[in-house]
Amino acid sequence: MVGIEDVARLAGVSTATVSRALSGKDHVSERAREKVKRAAAELGYVASSSAYTLATGRHRNIGVVLPFVDRWFFSVALEAVETVLIERGYDLTLYNLGDSESQRSKIFNDFLLRKRVDGVLCIAVKPLEAELEALNRTGKPVVGIGGPIKGIRTLAINDYNAAYLATEHLIGLGHTRIANIGGLPPTEMHFMQPSLRHEGYEQALIDAGLQVRPTWFVPADFTISGAYHAAKQVLGDPRNSPTAIVCASDEMGFGAIMAAKDLGLRVPEDVSVIGMDNHDMSEFFGLSTINQDVRGQGRHAAETLLSVLEAKDDEVPTNIEQSTEWNVELLIRSSTARPAAGGR
Q1: Which of 107, 119, 145, 146 is surrounded by the most beta carbons within 10 Å?
Q2: 317: cis peptide before it, omega within 30°?
Q3: For residue 321, what are the CA distances in angstroms to 133, 143, 149, 153, 324?
Q4: Is residue 336 situated within a structural domain?
Q5: Are 258 and 229 in contact (CB under 8 A)?
Q6: In terms of C-beta density within 10 A (0-12 exposed, 13-18 middle, 19 or more buried), how is residue 170 classed?
Q7: What is the DSSP string of 79-116?
Q8: From 77-91, 265-279, 306-320, 326-340, the region with the lowest mean pLDDT
C-alpha cells in the first residue's frame, strides 16, 4: 500500500511538505506542490482524511446553510462558495432549510453542532440568538451572506440604497408614475430585504417630490410567476396604470415584462421595468438591473471563513461582529427608457 513516505521519496521532499501540499496549505512553493502532485498521481496515493483529522482535529469540511437550493441567488452563491472550497482542499456539506421548522431545528441544534464540520456559512439565513450561541460553544467560525448578524462576520449589499438607485434611474428618465413589485413581509428568522427595498423605493419618490401610491405596491414571492400575476393587476388598471415598475429581484422583473407583453404593452415604450440581482438571464431579457455580483459575494464569504479557520491560534478571533457592505452598480439595458409623450 502506497504511503506518504513513498510520495515524499519520489518527489524528493519531506513528508511534512507532502502533507502541506496535498492539504492545500499556503506554505509550499508551487514547484514543490507540483512535484508532490505528480508523485502522488504516479503512485496512486490518496491522502487519508482520517489521518488528517486525528492530527489536526479538523475535517476540512464546511457546512453551508441556505433556505432554498432551487432558486437562482442561492444556487449561484453556493456554486461560488464550492469553487473556493474545492480549490483550497475543503469538502462541503449542504443543509437546505426549505419551509420546514423541524428541519431547521435539526440542522442548527444537531447536525451543525457535530464535529464533522469545521465552520458554517449561512447564505440568506439568519441564525436565531440561541442557535448562534450553540455554534459559538463549539468554537466553530460562522460567516453570513445577506444581512447583519449579531456576533459574527457578515457580508451584504445595502438593500435600501439598491432600491433607491433603481427608482432614481427611472425618475431620472422622466417617469413619475412608478410602481413597485416587492417581496413578501419577512419573518424574524430572515433579513429585512423586502422591507428595506420597499423603503428605498418610497424614499426616492418622496425625495423627488412624487406621490407614493399604496395601490402601486404589490408584494410577490421573488418568483417569475408571482410577479407575473402581480404586474398584471397593476398594469391592467386602465385608469391608474404606471409607466414604470421597480422589481425587487430580476426574476420578478422577468415576470413583469411577460405580463406587460401579454397585456399588449411594449417594454420599454409603454412601460419600463428594472430589477435587482443581475441574474444570468437578465441580459437575454434586456433587463436593466442593479448588479450585486452574487458570485463575488460567495467567493468573498468563503475566503473570509477559511482565513479564520487557517489563521494561527489566537491570531484572529473565531467570531466577531463585523459587517461588510458589498458594492452594487446600475446596469442599464433595453427595458428602461424615457416615458412616451403624455405618458408620465
Answers
A1: 145
A2: no
A3: 13, 10, 7, 5, 10
A4: no
A5: no
A6: buried
A7: HHHHHHHHHTT-EEEEEE-TT-HHHHHHHHHTGGGSTT
A8: 306-320
CB neighbour list of residue 107: distance below 8 Å, 6 or more residues apart? 65, 95, 97
Cα gap 118→140, rounded to integer Å: 6
Torsions phi, psi for 13 (to 5 deg): -135, 175
Mean pLDDT of 166-187: 91
Question: What is the structure's pLDDT at 51?
Answer: 46
Amino acid type, 342: G
pLDDT in tens, 153-163: 999 999 999 99
| pLDDT score for 91 | 94
Question: Do residue 164 and residue 257 come from a single domain?
Answer: yes
The number of domains in the chain is: 3
Single-letter amino acid, residue 92? L
- Band of pLDDT at residue 55, cut at 50, 70 and 90: very low
Contact 263, 232 (CB under 8 A): yes
Describe the chain by its helix, strand, coil percentages, rounded to 5.
Answer: 45, 15, 40
Residue type, position 295, single letter: R
324-341 burial, b for 16+ CB within 10 Å, e for fewer?
Answer: eebebeeeeeebbbbbee
Domain range for 90 is 59-157+294-327
How many CB atoms are closer than 10 A to CB 303?
A: 16
Amino acid at the residue 235:
L
| 173 in the same domain as 269 | yes
Grid cell listed for 69: 437550493
Is residue 110 one of the residues assigned to a domain?
Answer: yes
Q: Any idea what the CATH number is for the domain that residue 285 is in? A: 3.40.50.2300
- Lowest mean pLDDT segment, chosen from 41-50, 57-66, 209-218, 316-325: 41-50
Residue 19 — pLDDT band, cuts 50, 70, 90? Answer: confident
* Distance from C-alpha of 204 to C-alpha of 207, rounded to nearest angstrom: 5
Mean pLDDT value of segment 229-237: 93
